[in-house]
């Protein structure tokens, strides 16, 4: 049985219903979540996780983004789970993701794409060795927490994904200013999650705007 690392990124944890629906999709596919933890990522962990991208134009943004708000880290097991989870998530860039995939449904723009999943068995073992030894993810088998997360957060007053994408499209095409886009993004995310941490929302909106402007 294979295992892989799945991380719900800040866009999925701040927009709680997105994270809950992603977990539900994993469970519905029959995958087993063995370890589950909500973690605030520090710079050292972020840089170690993304070390293969050092020197690339988007490396600094990746590091900033994963630190915006706590992520949910999971060790997920199952038959052919590595490729199966990646197929479930869809294409890395949201604009290329099929509509029936997780990113096609809930991704916002570019790399603001809901979740990370290891891209090979070898990568999964490297990433899991980091997260299981350097974070609280490795402390105990607590997969049942994933089901509780789904039960608690699956509902949302509304889903503003399409509106958020339109703002990003307009920003990337130079039709609106970054400051205006950030204000609109914050408002839409707060509409979805009226009780969420406003500081996380502000940081997430900033990260989304930056991503839209990456060449």
Describe this structure in words.
40% of the residues are buried. Helix 2 crosses helix 8 and helix 9 packs antiparallel against helix 10. The chain contains eleven helices and four strands. The radius of gyration is 16 Å and the shape is globular. Strands 2-3-1-4 form a four-stranded antiparallel sheet. It has 215 residues and is α+β, with helices and mostly antiparallel strands.
List keywords for this structure.
215 residues; alpha+beta; 4-stranded antiparallel β-sheet; 53% helix; 12% strand; globular
Task: Name the beta content range.
Answer: 5-15%
Low-confidence stretches: none
What's the gyration radius in Å? 16 Å
Order of secondary-structure elements: EHHEHHEHHEHHHHH
Mean pLDDT: 96
Brief rundown of the structure:
The chain is of the alpha+beta class. The protein contains eleven helices and four strands.
What order do the helices and strands come in, and which of them pair?
Blueprint (H helix, E strand, L loop, with lengths): L1 E7 L1 H5 L1 H13 L3 E8 L3 H7 L9 H8 L4 E8 L2 H9 L12 H5 L8 E3 L3 H14 L9 H10 L7 H12 L5 H15 L5 H15 L3
Antiparallel strand pairs: 1-3, 1-4, 2-3
